[in-house]
Amino acid sequence: MTTSCQRMNAEAGRPGTFVQYLIQGAGYGCVKMPVPSGAHRGHTANGRRAIRCRPSVPSDEIGEAYEGFKALPLEQYAVVPGFLAMVGDVRGRSVLDLASGTGFYSREFKRRGAGDVLGIDISGEMVAVAQQLEERNPLGVRYEVGDVSELRPLEHRFDVGLAVQLLSYAQDIATTERMCGNAHRSLNPGGEFFVLNQSPDFRFDGPSPDKYGFRSELTGEEVETGPRVRITALLDPPVSFIANRPRREVYEDCLKAAGFSEITWVPVEVSEAGVRAFGADFWADFHANPPLEMLRCRA
Questions:
Q1: How many CB atoms lie within 10 A of CB 68?
Q2: Contact status, residue 71 vs residue 40, Cβ threshold 8 Å
Q3: pTM for the predicted model, two decimal places
């Protein structure tokens, strides 16, 4: 059976070719970069300096390398398996993927037996790529462009909601509350909402996640929800984007205000495959200073 890691490598783009890259859900624009044949092993080939792409670039060239992020050690051996395990069995359940990007999790949960799956992202280019991947390998996943803070009423409520790095892009508490409120009204009573975000407790002067493929640095700016952070994927060339790191109480208070209950923080753990691939000592810095954390709650 094909694993999710094998699929993420296959979907990352043709080895050695140049593809257009967009950060999931951020809307910061795209850069041109190679996806080398060794990406799935955490290595990259030498490439050109990143450049901004023009709006006229065809959408079928945009975002196809997004799943390349998923092949970096942190994602492949901790984040992806951890998030999939937290969400658990979705067979027969409807799934709403907010900030769906190019649809990685939308597709994965559909493959795992979910019923209706709808992915929504603010980036039209990302949604276009997700739709092209659906056309190439039809699974029955629907996608649309939408701002979660201004989310339209949906045709029906969903059993499961996903928010991967969604709340990191809310510029203030009011926007965070609107995002949480729109997610809550889109879920069935008792439906589950699963969130993946930067850890509010990550210590910027502590052990670095560099060896796992990412770097996280303070920009020196502060917004209402918390500090601004520059996150860099250590590809060749590196790809950086700016997000916020909300304080723990911002998540909890906004989710509670929206009507969610049973709010539970869930640590991101390294999979057994990750330990086998690199050894336990390799992950010591990750365990000492986790850069990411998950939470789950109920509508």
A1: 26
A2: yes
A3: 0.81
The number of angstroms, rounded, from the C-alpha of 120 to the middle of its chain's C-alpha atoms is 13
How many CB atoms sit inside 10 A of residue 219's CB? 12
d(Cα 239, Cα 271) in Å, to the nearest integer?
A: 25
25: left (phi over 0), alpha (psi -120 to 50) or beta: left
Residue pair 114/93 in contact by the 8 Å Cβ criterion: yes
Is 208 exposed, middle or buried (CB count within 10 Å of its CB: 0-12, 13-18, 19+)?
middle
Per-residue pLDDT of the chain (299 residues; tens, 9 = 90+): 445 544 444 444 332 222 233 333 333 233 333 333 233 333 322 222 222 232 333 333 335 446 567 789 999 999 999 999 999 999 999 999 999 999 999 999 999 999 999 999 999 988 999 999 999 999 999 999 999 999 999 999 999 999 999 999 999 999 999 999 999 999 999 999 999 999 999 999 999 999 999 999 999 999 999 999 999 988 777 888 899 999 999 999 999 999 999 999 999 999 999 999 999 999 999 999 999 999 999 99
Burial annotation 106-141 (CB, 10 A radius, 16+ → b, else e): bbbbbbbebbbbbbbbbbebbbbbbbbbbeeeeeeb
Q: What's the first-to-final CA gap in the chain, in angstroms?
A: 34
